[in-house]
Structure formats: C-alpha cells, structure tokens
Amino acid sequence: MILDYKGIPVFYSDTGKGQVVVLLHGFLEDSSMWDTLTPVLAKKNRVITIDLLGHGKTACLGYIHTMEDMANAVYFVLKTLKLRKYIFIGHSMGGYVALAFAKKHSESVKGLCLLNSTYQEDSIERKQLRARANKMVQNNYENMVRMSFANLFSAESKLKYNEAYNEALKTALKTPIQGYMSANEGMRLREDSSTFFTEASFKKIVLLGKKDTILDVENILKFTKNHNIESYIFSEGHMSHIENKIDFIKQIVLFIEKI
Predict the structure, then answer these.
(1) What region holds the AB hydrolase-1 domain (predicted)?
(2) pLDDT for 218 beyond 90
(3) Diameter of the chain by CA atoms?
(4) Coil, strand, or helix at residue 252?
C-alpha cells in the first residue's frame, strides 16, 4: 500500500491482527526482507512493514536522510493507521531508525529489538568510510553497491546461501544512488544512543551475529551484560534473517511473546 508523505510515495504493508509489530529493514534492503517472518508473526500479531526513505517503493525526500527523517516517515504511516502502541524490530539501519523513533515517542514503544544493529554511533573510522563511499559511489555505483553488500556476508555464507544472497543483492541494486547516499550520510551523522537505550523503560533485546564484521560484537555484548540488557548471539554474521533463519524467527517470536 502507498501513502503520500510530503509529496513522495511511502510503501507499507499491514498484515494480521493483535498487538502491533513494526518491522524496519536495513541499508540497501526493503520490506521484502521480512517475507519469511511476517506470516509467522501475523498469526498472533498485526505486522506492519515499511520501506524506508530512498529504499524499495518509497522515494527519496532529500539528499540527506537522517535517522530522524526516516523515523518521521514511519510515524506518519503509524499515525495514518491510527496505531498507538507498537513493538519495533529493526535490522541494522532499521534499528537506528527505531531508536530515533523511540527517542521522540517513547510512550508509544512497548518493545525494541536491535537485530544486527547497535545503539552506538559510528566510530571515526566508520564515518570516514561512509564519506569515502559516498564520493566513490557517484562514479561507480553498481560496483560500490556490490562491494557494500558483499561485506555483509562471510565468504562461506555467500556460497551456502547463494540463492538468498543473489535475491538480496538484486534488491540492493534497485536502490537509487540518491537513496544510497542519503541514507549513508544519515547513518554517518547519527548520534550515540547508548544512554537512552540503557535507561529506556520499554522491553529491549540486542540480537547479534558472532561473525559480524560490521559491528563491534564483543564490545556490544560486554555493554549489554554490564547494563542488564538482554542479548542473544547467532552463529553467523550480519544477515541473521538469511544466515540463521530458523533461530532468528525463534528469537523474534520469543521476544514478542514476553511483551
């Protein structure tokens, strides 16, 4: 379904009945990443998936999409649907958007799952990499997307889950250059949310991949342990919905059932 938001189309889906679960995809993904999870959750919940700004069937709003910009578009969808309380599952960038949303609308958030995501801001090195990528992508877009996407998987996973990898790559390559650059810059500019996430009263969990090369997994696990934040670690990498599909679904269902 399409809504008009500030003159651009925003795509969402609305499935099932019950407590509301909002699924937010990551960078170079779209709401189709949830196609396996949605029917499982929709048996007992109302599941909303949304294509974030510059991804999938949602157009770009500008040349910088901050996490707050994306969260505002998400809020517009939920407000239009007259929904007031929800659980967020955010994959990677989707987790950053969910955090930005929760900062503005904490009273509406019942739970937040950071899936292969973090409450931390980018490291200085990561910020430099994003700035460099945005320069390089202007001249060699397809190769940059392929390289950015390939870094999300281990060499073993690319072979083991070759079909799913290729399908996800097709989605990534459909992301417009403006969508790539706007989101990348938005992630580069995001602020640290460690204190907010620690002190937030809603139910929370961090789900990580042991072999994830994008996140500082060891540091995140140490932080969650020190602050009594629930965490769980999958055996593989950054794309748990592909690399650890059965365990991923199980952990999401368990999290929602606890709320």
Answers:
(1) 20-244
(2) yes
(3) 48
(4) helix
